């Protein structure tokens, strides 16, 4: 089973989606991580303000902090391999990082001969506001 570990910058809570001004990037990233979890991927997140020992214990993360400071966060690891740092990747990138089978991007509609243009494979399925099921 794949395990992704996210080392987030200091945030007020574990996801950063709280408070008066919510960063849409963090909302999208949290939703994308939930989606990965639904695909059987184990996701662990560490917040610098709440779990600094985890950052100090990982040599790769410690190196990013020494070289780039907090601008190098978040760091995304798969085992001992650093996959990304300094930004929150999009769902399609996370999908590749986690080794999830390719699927249409979030909200993307795929054309097929039998389903009226929806990527769900069944033309009788109710479609959502994105045009797909």
- Fourth CATH level, the homologous superfamily of the largest domain: Glutaredoxin
Mean pLDDT comes to: 80
Topology, number of strands: 4
H and E order: EHEHHEEH
Percent of residues in helices comes to: 25-40%
How many DSSP H or I helices?
Answer: 4
Quick one: CATH class of the largest domain? Alpha Beta
Which geometry do the CA atoms define?
Answer: globular
Query: How many structurally independent domains?
Result: 2
The major β-sheet equals: 4 strands, mixed
| Strand content range | 15-25%
CA distance, first residue to last residue: 28 Å
Question: If you compute it from the alpha carbons, what radius of gyration comes out, rounded to the nearest whole angstrom?
Answer: 17 Å
Oligomer: single chain
Strand order of the largest sheet: 2-1-3-4
CATH architecture of the largest domain: 3-Layer(aba) Sandwich
Q: Would you tell me which CATH topology of the largest domain applies?
A: Glutaredoxin
